[in-house]
Amino acid sequence: MKNKDFSLSRRRLLVGAAALGGGAFFGVHAGQAQAASFNLLNVSYDPTRELYADVDKAFANVWHQAHPGDSVTVKTAHGGSGAQARSVLEGVPADVVTLGLAYDIDLLAQKGLIAPDWQTRLPHNSTPYTSTIVFLVRKGNPKNIKDWPDLVRDGVQVITPNPKTSGGARWNYLAAWGWALHQHNGSEDAAKTYLKILFKHVPVLDTGARGATNSFVQRHLGDVLLAWEDEALMAARDIGPDQFDIVVPSQTILAEPPVSLVDKNVKAHGTEAVAKAYLEFLFSPEGQKIGAKHYFRPVDPAVLAEYGQVFPNVETFDVASLGGWTKLQKDHFSNGGIFDSLYR
């Protein structure tokens, strides 16, 4: 990815408070400078297609308002979170990554593409929006699915993607795992038994969350979709308000999909300042409202309150309570791990 030769050290950059809804990005300041053209690549996970289509346009407009001579083009690539992380490792020239879980960004940090302290560089552990895992069912809920035990009843087919390639699938898996642990006083044997039965009810494993949604919504496979809340709300409200209902289980997981710039790449591309600004835009009031519009839960309390009618209260547990991503990845999703033993 090439940009015009341009020394950012010779210009001082500002996205004005009026344009951003308050505050400058990453402490850069205004000044007169030669116009520049920037191209950014955001490598993202599956369910964010509509979200970043709006974010990319809004950010380009905000940057142009603050720097009238500049042009910014942002392109976003989508896929299963794990597969997307591997693509960046293999050379896809991402300026920023907005992935489904912290482990996938940690992997890039371990390989030297991203600074080890990436999660401390932005608010809320570099997580601009949260979500959770819910059930999407056919209109009227014909199989009377209300909670996790109903997923393993005879005659119920469950749609969920592959945890080896999809971050959303790992959230689905861990939501079920955590619920089972809590039901059985922390017994991993009981949780394994539940997950093994659950995956016998899964007829197909798509590679990403959006593929699983398409299997359920468009191909009419299965009776219930385990889904990011934003995917379920989009299907129930926008795609088929007369076709689907959402069931919120008694307990589920707090999904925290984080973001980071890819340090090695932005330095090579000359895009570090604009990439930082792009990520901080996600935390601005405008960026938070775009997230809420696409059914991602804002981390800004004021914006969350504004959209409170969209997001029901849910009882959640987090990844840390299950041991953290490093342990979970090794124990469950590595080759020969618990998932492989259950799905053999």
TrEMBL record:
Q: Which UniProt keywords apply?
A: Periplasm, Signal, Transport
Q: Which domain of life is it from?
A: Bacteria
PROSITE patterns according to UniProt: PROK_SULFATE_BIND_2 (PS00757), TAT (PS51318)
Instruction: Please tell me where this protein is predominantly located.
Output: periplasm
What GO MF annotations does this protein's record show? molecular carrier activity; sulfur compound binding
Gene3D superfamilies associated with the record: Periplasmic binding protein-like II (3.40.190.10)
Q: Name one GO biological process term.
A: sulfate transmembrane transport
The family database entries (InterPro entries) matched by this protein are listed as:
Sulphate/thiosulphate_BS, TAT_signal, Thiosulph/SO4-bd
Family, similarity comment: Belongs to the prokaryotic sulfate-binding protein family.
Protein name according to UniProt: Thiosulfate-binding protein
